[in-house]
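Homework help board

Subject: predicted structure for assignment chain

Our instructor gave us this sequence and asked us to write out the predicted structure in token form, then describe one feature. I got the tokens but I'm not sure how to describe them. Can anyone check?
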Amino acid sequence: MFRLSRYFIRETTGLYIFGVAAFCLLLSIDMLTTWAKFLLEQEASAATVSRLMLFRLPMFLHLSMPIAIVFAILLATGRLAKDSELKAAYSLGVKPFNMLFPLLFFAFLVSLLTLFNNGFIEPVANRSYDRLVNSFFYTKPPPETQTNVAYRISDDSIYFAGRIRADEIDTNLANLSGIYILRPDGSSISSPEGSWNSSERSWLLYDAEIVQPDGSKEVMPELSLKFETASDAAKVLVDSDSLMLSELNSRLLEAKRTGGQVRDLQHSFHTRIADAFSALIFALVASVLGLQLHGRASGFGWTIVLLVLFWSLWTLSGQLFEQNILSPFVAAWLTSGLVGVVGLALAWWRLK
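My token output:
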């Protein structure tokens, strides 16, 4: 079994590398127009465009690495079936269930590599990509913006801003608009605009109107309020796709502590992990079907069918999340969960 396992893994590895390269190429097609525009209109050098392509590679690997495992296993087992090698193994007393383990072990290693890519390499590459684009496409980095943001700070006051826009020069500052603050004593403060200084941990409000619980009002040209939170104005507004898993988890915990919005952060966190281990789940279904194939043509056919089904589930779960139908955790794990149940059922039915 050890020699047979090595043989299975060797047959699968070559096809897997080819599959990853092919799917990365397909995913990069949408970006070719953008890169060509940088090359022609923005006068970027060929070396700069090559670096842009390199920085986008981890994003392509995010989907290519799990998907390619289906391609590799089905074509490898299809070749073995075509040359009657599967029949020879069965005739020697090797059970189909035993041949499942080397394929799943290979997929488990792929899942670990994919998790490292999704959680650490991809965010760093996204930051590098944005910095490089900004260096020749913009005179200044484009400011990050969030809308309808709320926080609960240490004294149980609730701070709300209709829009927070990061300052273009000083990353410790952010411009606020549509401000409303509710204090524990029942008083409220509203202001059309203000600024957030993360280094001083304060919000400065302009033309602030203070309404006391008894209805009395007072208008102040400027009002400085302590904003005790560990969040930094620049860090809070950074796109979650540019955060490593550890950084994303820290922001998620901070958002929960301050009463901020956590739904998108939870979805991003769980999606990276679920997408990584989907390689193992997809491999289970592909292996069960592959060990029952009768030729290479059927392996290729099942590859197309499974890829379409998996991609449809991925797309559907994302749309259901955006429409607030599914929770972040369910939306992230829906594809892997459904495919995993089907895979276990097939394994019990066809390989027992």
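Reply (TA_rk): Your tokens look well-formed. For the description, you could write something like this. The chain is about 65% helix and 15% strand. That's the kind of observation they're looking for.
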